[in-house]
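HUMAN: Mind making up another protein with tokenized structure?

ASSISTANT:
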Amino acid sequence: MTTDTLSAVRTPAHDNQRTASALRFITCGSVDDGKSTLIGRLLVDSKSVLQDQLAGVQRSGETDLALLTDGLSAEREQGITIDVAYRYFATETRKFIIGDAPGHEQYTRNMVTAASSADAAVVLVDATKLDWQNPQLALLPQTRRHSLLAHLLRVHSLVFAINKLDAVADPALAFANIRNALATFAQAAGITVAATIPVSALKGWNVVTAHPDWAGYQGPSLLELLEKLPTTPADAGQPLAFSVQWVEKFSASADTHQGRRIFWGRVGTGDVAVGTAVQILPSGQRATVAQVLDHVRQPVARGAGQSAGIVLDREVDVSRGDWIIAAPAPAVTHAADDDFDTPSERPAWPATREITATIAWMDNEPLLPGRVYWALHGRRWIKAKVRKVLNRLDIHSLERQDAEQLEPNAIGRVEISLQEAIPAAAFVRSRELGSLILVDTASNSTAAAVLVE
């Protein structure tokens, strides 16, 4: 990677606060590409592992770095990652939260769960599994699938780490061909790539410490790059949307000049302060914010991504799962408008029962139109029915193909009808309002991740 490429992922000097904040990133890619080993190498070489922990991950007298994240007995027996394992470490300049996502296709739902809250994704590519001598080489399906899912889930930065180049005869040629294949795929899919780095997780080359001139690469190590990646920007500058997670009542209070309940949750979009006019959904009631509290119950204004407790100026029926959103604004009217047809107000977040969405299908059974599922939007559970499958994305050609159903781990577009209207918005505008999950009503297993269009 050139110096220009590195500067593209650096944050400006005035953005030190964002750079210094904790970075949540995941490792993903195909099975056995070295994801767990890479994380183990990051932990060991950054001096984040104690000696007694290293002593507990020995196999045949040698340290098995993958065991630092593969903690389940089934994972250690089979030598694979099944569930997402989170690890925490810090350098002198930054803190990190790592999610080790499984590579097997059948555990795609776990990867989606980890990516939904990540700031960055490191997609590992095993050079030994590819026809690296061929300039027109084909990428593995899971490499493509995980990259597409990270892109769809608005993961802010995506890094390709080409692993095991120490095991090929010509690392420079392999890196050049694989990097070109990844760039061609990313451009066709509309994915912005922060960097492509050659690494050897086993030997530690370009993981924590740069290995100059290896594979024709002159850029920073993976850790040096991660220290400079930005966190995901909050959905600020938009109308307020706040999903109520918990309702607390002061039963002993006799003060009735304002509401006697605190509505706790996280600000999804916009900001909230004393005096903010709000509307409750689905009831439609109006109120004004009387207090905004932080986690130690001190008055403070809160913005997108921050947890808060809201007290309203009067008693309003609000339950867990309800939305507190910005009150509707007066509609812009013109003299020629018909007073009978022109609405007097414009809702901040219009509620709807019909949505078109991109869906990542994760159930073991195919998605068939007509079935009813539970849908979770924010903290609200409602019934949902998939009315129609519009098309399916071919992860190889990136073409949209006509389809009547979606197979397990497929990505497609669907039309969904909801039992109740919700304030749904496009996912590209709001992660909070634009995402749902579908849950099977019989097995209670997560069936799909839904991204509203």
Notes: Confidence is low (pLDDT under 50) at residues 1-19, 71-82.
